[in-house]
Amino acid sequence: MRAMPIRLAGLVLLILLCVVGSVLAQNQIMGEIKFSGATKVEKSSGVWIDGQYVGYLKELKGQKQVVLLPGKHDISVRQAGYSDFTRQLTVEPGQTQTVRVTMQKAEGAVWPSATATLKLNVKPERAAVFVDDGFAGHVGEFGGAFDSMLLSAGKHRIKIALPGYQTFETEVNLLVNQKAELKTELVRGSIEQAGPLLISRAGEEPADQ
Q1: 88 beta partners
Q2: Which member of 19, 32, 125, 187 lies 3.0 to 4.6 Å from 140 by CB, making a disulfide possible if both were Cys?
């Protein structure tokens, strides 16, 4: 009767060894990319890898670390009012590379003179925000007690999207000095329901829908 628990324990140990071996083998095959940015502008910028939005720079660590198959990968970092930061990296098996991001203000960028404010109360807070089809930042930048989005008065198309969720779209019509709030929670869905704004070729602006 004692042989059965011993065999069972041996089987469990064998399974654990196989799992650990598989994880170690995967770690040796995959390569990791880390991002660093000196200012809030870089840290809050959105990151696209091979045309797919993966999140904003500051959060891409820990459970959200970027692990990729070996080979060439296109990196694009975006922020409203700044030129896209683009790089092509060759990922090596089992190696970690750090991308130091520096955002430069875009020539001819125009900031609204007569503004209204739009506060976003949206979940998840890491979702990307697009205003009139241009990337504006992530939800977390435009919520809370002291943070909101500055927009020119008039009509604007607002889209909020994240891979694995259905894209939320709406239109706001703001008056000068108006304070408005947008509240919603994204509905879970397929990555294909995130919308074309999240998936575009590196270095190019998304096409209008």
Answers
A1: 74
A2: 125
Is residue 11 predicted with pLDDT exceeding 90?
Answer: no
Compute the distance between CA of residue 86 and CA of residue 200 in angstroms, rounded to an integer. 13
- The rounded distance, in Å, linking the Cα atoms of 158 and 170 is 5
- Which of 138, 136, 173, 134 has its CA nearest to residue 153? 173
Domains and CATH numbers, the chain: 30-101 (2.60.40.2070), 115-198 (2.60.40.1120)
Q: Which residues contact 209 (CB under 8 A, 6 or more apart)?
A: 133, 195, 196, 197
Residue partners of 191: CB distance under 8 A and separation at least 6: 163, 164
φ, ψ (nearest 5 deg) of residue 39: -120, 175
Question: Residue 167 is encoded by which pair of tokens?
Answer: 């894209």
Q: Give the mean pLDDT of 150-155.
A: 91
Entry pTM? 0.73
Note whether 87 and 75 are within 8 A (CB): yes
Alpha-carbon distances of 44 from 12, 14, 127, 192, rounded to whole Å: 44, 44, 12, 25
Is residue 129 within 8 Å of 151, Cβ to Cβ? no
Residue-wise pLDDT tens digits, 99-141: 999 999 988 777 767 689 999 999 999 999 999 988 999 999 9
